[in-house]
Specification:
Blueprint (H helix, E strand, L loop, with lengths): L3 E8 L4 H10 L3 E8 L2 E7 L5 E7 L6 H10 L2 E8 L3 H10 L5 E4 L5 E6 L8 E7 L18 E10 L2 H11 L3 E5 L3 E6 L3 E7 L7 E10 L6 H14 L3 E3 L2
Parallel strand pairs: 1-4, 5-8, 9-12, 13-14
Antiparallel strand pairs: 1-5, 2-3, 3-4, 6-7, 7-8, 9-13, 10-11, 11-12
Helix pairs in contact: 1-5
């Protein structure tokens, strides 16, 4: 089975704004999440597209990776996650592509993972993981009532080297190319997950997530929705584009 773009993760020192934006305004419904060593995480799903994951550090030595990220960048995009059925096969493809994965941990019975460093993954962490069974589940008390159903249409990711980024997401991570040109390309995965790659020169880390686009499954966003989404997104270090 091919790799699947499962979720897009955002790190923040506090998740209240994340719940308000991605559930209260954008209609994400709770999937699962829990307290893990050093951090708390939770995922929301949409009518179509990838899930959104929110992460926050909870202290101790296992929180160091997320604390470093927040100290360096503030709240903002943290990683793309791709679920795979055979992580050893994918690790072989990654190495054959010329990238050495980091944080490789394939000893777990229910969760195996590895990461691509942002310098190799066009400015963002990429996580590949093999999951066995549903993880523990502990919904946050502050999770609001979800807004109207919404589709997570795409993540637009700007990259300095479009050709290599396209080959990474297509040949290694199994994206299906929908469109490709000299300045942009779009790839899709099962479930409606979509990434648009756009060429932009001079990016300091070789790439950056530009924006996330959402659309209402029925109807349109109100002016109040747009204003509130803009304020919350700014505090989370992301840009959201509300279509329609």
């Amino acid at each position: 089975m091919p790799a699947v773009l499962d979720h897009f993760a955002i790190g923040a020192p506090d998740l209240a704004d994340g719940w308000d934006l991605f559930s209260g305004v954008l209609g994400g419904t709770w999937v699962y999440g829990c307290d893990s060593p050093g951090y708390w995480w939770g995922q929301l799903e949409y009518a179509a597209g990838a899930k959104i994951e929110l992460l926050t550090p909870t202290g101790g030595p296992d929180a160091a990776f997320l604390e470093r990220f927040l100290a360096a960048h503030g709240a903002g995009p943290h990683h793309f996650n791709f679920l795979v059925t055979d992580i050893e096969d994918v690790l072989g493809r990654i190495r054959a592509f010329g990238i050495e994965p980091v944080g490789v941990n394939v000893a777990g019975a229910h969760w195996k993972e590895a990461f691509l460093h942002p310098r190799d993954a066009h400015g963002i962490v990429i996580q590949v993981a093999q999951q066995g069974g549903a993880p523990p589940d502990s919904p946050p008390e502050e999770l609001p009532e979800p807004g109207p159903a919404t589709r997570f249409d795409l993540a637009e990711h700007h990259v300095s080297d479009l050709d290599r980024a396209l080959r990474l997401f297509r040949d290694v991570l199994d994206g299906q190319v929908e469109t490709a040109g000299t300045d942009a390309a779009e790839l899709t995965w099962p479930g409606g997950s979509r990434i648009r790659l756009v060429r932009e020169d001079g990016l300091p880390r070789g790439g950056a997530v530009h924006h996330l686009r959402f659309s209402r499954a029925a109807g349109a966003f109100s002016a109040q929705d747009r204003e509130r989404a803009g304020l919350l997104a700014k505090r989370l270090g992301v840009t959201v584009d509300l279509a329609g």
